[in-house]
Write a structure and sequence with these properties.
heterodimer; A: 114 residues; mainly beta; seven-stranded mixed sheet; globular; B: 111 residues; six-stranded mixed sheet; five-stranded antiparallel sheet
Chain lengths: 114, 111
């Protein structure tokens, strides 16, 4: 996925520990999004950012926080990981917001909380 | 009831078949409609983008939107084994936090 990189690609962590996932883009896009993908639920928005230090909640934001200190980096933190947060996490970017363009997605981070 | 409903399949067709994938939705504010293709262990990639009602064609792919019925479709002509993937519909009213995705339909095209 040219222009957008997620790290790590896989992670196993223990319940109760904090976890940070990173999304890095080289496209200089204004909008960045974090989604989780679960069977039967499709993709659900966790948080999004519309600029440096400008973030807002999505539909499933409880237990997650985000930060964006630079245009190119958007971090997702699970403050105290729970088994219900076992999922595949995708970062997405957009230049003009959803109204003008679709999103470009990263390759995902597969997180397992044991 | 979910805002976006999509039959998860799986759907299996022979090579060369015409494939029809569909989603229904309940939010009349949706006006931007997308189809994404997702290969196994990869992120979704944008396939088709449509604003409001009507048809849009791109090669073997045609997207249709019927806002009066709250129903969208993706047609794949002359399907190929390389089309085997999960197809996600998505729609939005134009706000950054209101994009909703279907659960995805898994398609297999057999040679």
């Amino acid at each position: 996925d040219a222009g957008i990189t997620q790290s790590p690609r896989h992670k196993v962590t223990e319940t109760g520990t904090p976890v940070t996932l990173r999304c890095h883009q080289t496209e200089n896009h204004r909008y960045m999004y974090w989604y989780r993908q679960d069977p039967g639920h499709g993709l659900r928005l966790i948080h999004y950012s519309y600029g440096v230090k400008d973030t807002d909640k999505g539909e499933v934001s409880d237990g997650y926080s985000v930060s964006r200190s630079k245009t190119e980096d958007f971090l997702l933190t699970l403050e105290s990981a729970t088994s219900s947060q076992t999922s595949v996490y995708f970062c997405a970017i957009s230049d003009g917001g959803v109204g003008n363009y679709g999103y470009t997605f990263g390759s995902g981070t597969r997180l397992t909380v044991v | 009831q979910k805002e976006v409903e999509q039959d998860p399949g799986p759907l299996s067709v022979p090579e060369g078949a015409i494939v029809s994938l569909n989603c229904t939705y309940s939010n009349s504010a949706f006006q931007y409609f997308m189809w994404y293709r997702q290969y196994s262990r990869k992120g979704p990639e944008l396939l088709m983008y449509t604003y409001s009602s009507g048809n849009k064609e791109d090669g073997r792919f045609t997207a249709q939107v019927d806002k009066s019925s709250k129903y969208i479709s993706l047609f794949i002509r002359d399907s190929q084994p390389s089309d085997s993937a999960t197809y996600l519909c998505a729609m939005s009213g134009g706000n950054n936090n209101d994009m909703r995705f279907g659960a995805g339909t898994r398609l297999t095209v057999k040679p």
